Amino acid sequence: MTRTILITGASRGIGRAVAIQCGKRGWSIGVNYAGNQKAAGETVAAVEAAGGKALAIQGDVANEADVIRMFDTTERAFGPISGVVNNAGIVAPATKLADASLERLQRMFAVNVTGAYLVARETARRLGTDRGGKGGSLVNLSSAAARLGSPNEYVDYAGSKGAIDVMTIGLSKELAPAGIRVNAIRPGLIDTEIHASGGEPDRAFRLAVNVPLARPGTADEVANAILWLLSDEAAYVTGAILDVSGGR
Ligand code: NAP
């Protein structure tokens, strides 16, 4: 069955891997990105090459009008959305909280918390059977940081992902009667460009010695779990927070 999926932050990393796997199933994808138009175009081309349809949609998840527009644009192009991957997220250079600026904290929480809540809210409004929707699946991207706390690196990021875990628990109960399953993935150390944006491209490999499976994960390995939560194979799964972290 053809499905329409919106993925925030789908130009690179985990979001791109999810988009391509959806494309292999012949699904239609809203490929949201923040600023990297070239990377978003590459994701669209890869989805189409895999057999799906895709549209690149610029928008900042921390901006309410942008979030509404990314849902509108996806639905206009491909029809009603039945799955949303709440994936866009940022880190910042490693620091102790004592040295963190207000601007850093505000941006971290604006994107990772307010942004994720706005995307979840729009999902509730559009997919909820109580509001004329057909139900569906929302998959939130948390992090193992929510369990570990990320001391000396980014306790702000860890806290923002703790909020995603709690939102997943509450919203799964709030939206179950409306036919929307809400789950979260907690990736561990995954080999994407997010570590370069935090100032250390090789971070996942450096810290892999602490991972029981003794290596970083790949974006595709996280995408596999997300695709399962999007699918009807997970029809009885809601409120779950799934670690995809190699045992870390
Ligand atoms: P990534 O490689 O850095 O890619 C980030 C994606 O998010 C890009 O597509 C980027 O768009 C987009 N983005 C950033 N800020 C945005 C905003 N304000 N609005 C809309 N889109 C925005 O990240 P990743 O490693 O794939 O991580 C994806 C998610 O998994 C994040 O929530 C992250 O916290 C979580 N996670 C990752 C890891 C890991 O080790 N990689 C571990 C735990 C959790 P542009 O290309 O336009 O910049």
Kindly provide the name of the CATH class.
Answer: Alpha Beta
Bound molecules: NADP nicotinamide-adenine-dinucleotide phosphate
| Secondary-structure element order, N to C | EHEHEHEHEHHEHHHE
Q: What is the spatial order of strands in the main beta sheet?
A: 3-2-1-4-5-6-7
Query: What percent of residues adopt helix (DSSP H or I)?
Result: 40-55%
The radius of gyration computed from the alpha-carbon positions, rounded to a whole number of angstroms, is 17 Å
Low-confidence stretches: none
Structure characterization notes:
The protein has a single domain, classed as NAD(P)-binding Rossmann-like Domain (Rossmann fold), CATH 3.40.50.720. The chain has nine helices and seven strands. Bound molecules: NADP nicotinamide-adenine-dinucleotide phosphate. The site of NADP nicotinamide-adenine-dinucleotide phosphate has 33 residues, from helix 1, strand 2, helix 4 and helix 7.
